[in-house]
Amino acid sequence: MLATNSRYWTSLGIASQAMAGRSLYVMSRRVCASIFSCRHSHQHRLSNIFKPLNVMPKGAVKKSDEAMSISQKLLVDLGITSLRSNGMYAMLPLGQRVLNKLTALIDEEMARVDSQRFSLPHLTKAELWRITGRWESTGEELFRTEDRRAREYVLSPTHEEAVANLLSDVQQLSFRELPLRLYQISSKFRDEINPRFGLLRCREFLMKDLYTFDKSEDEAVCTYNDISGAYGRLFQRIGVPFIKVAGDCGSIGGDFSHEYHYQAAIGEDTLLLCQTCGYATNAELLPDSNNVLPCPKCKSQVDKISGIEVGHTFLLGTRYSKPLQACYRNENGKPEVTWMGCYGVGVSRVMAAVVEVLSHPDSIVWPWMLAPFKVCIIGPKKGSRESSVSSWVEHMAHMVSKEDGYVDDIVIDDRDSLTIGRRVLEATRTGYPFILIVGKRAAEHVPIFELIDTVTHESHHLSHQMLLQYFRETVKNKQKL
Q: For residue 29, which of 5, 138, 212, 478 sits 20 to 30 Å off, Cα-Cα?
């Protein structure tokens, strides 16, 4: 146990557990005075959170056609998402917290490259898609609809046409206003013939799509490199190992593209990687990639792996800006066509993919930055011998939530009609990184609390000060990664 490792506590600046305990004893006398204020401060409580568990009845036999991915099963079973129709999911409160955290990371990285957030309508005029040729080429995956006057629209899977049309209506866009970088985070739609694997392949999904406009090809390439750097930082901050490969431009088109993948057995993309020279590409770019191929750069044998695509960047050139007349006025006041790029992140797909990559068959493991709550605090069962220490639950929630890195990230499992063991099991399956148990040892002369790390499966018994120091050190270590 860490509690008995003197070298560990010395490294944290605490001479010994006994010293920490004596300091805690003085502080614990103030706990009662702070209980009133703690109870009146805002704390998240599981009894107030809508989290319907999907429990299969005992003896029920799962049909073969109900096979699903790990992420799909866990997110639905643990009340994080809810299947509402084939390929369409409701995002429940814990799932929304995960998306909010991911969206905040995206906003921060987009701000670093001077991108502005905006929003376009979900419906785009069919006329624009006909001009670019995508009305015909996209095929049956494109959701098409009409209004009461028989005017046709697209329920947009992407917004290249819409944003280029927006720029074409800005008659006085000056060269001084470029580069222009606009992004949105919104629902997109695809009429999947066979939705599968939950949020990994569905009909409605949340996506971040960035559109850039530059004066020339050279400047567009510079923008492409800037955004690619932002993507690298974003995926590093998420904390799940990713692979960047040369990508297929597909129906979107453009001069070249790159894809960002998480390696997973159920991934639908085949990636070719060379360990010798670092060459990495989607197998779609190479003819006859089903056979063992030498690396085009160094002739070494390439490795084949499966990946889940979570991001894609495209240098579009004038693919959309020319037919839709997305122009700017140059130094001489003459109109010139802009050079475009588009950059996507599958926001809801990232959420499912990290669960798919990190989790166990019966429990979720979240990356630190995306966990719905970082700490779940569990107190004694009502009426038990330990119920006298219940006041520590509110106090510890109040104290931990003031620490950097834990603000608004603490949830109390206040369902005290359930045993501690049952609540610990559910908290572990839900994937909160830390579970803090206020149990019988909190009644000792120097109160001791149990802290469970659900990622490493280690259990530590710590005093008040040691616990707070442990949380501080964890945040420092996470920030170094």
A: 5
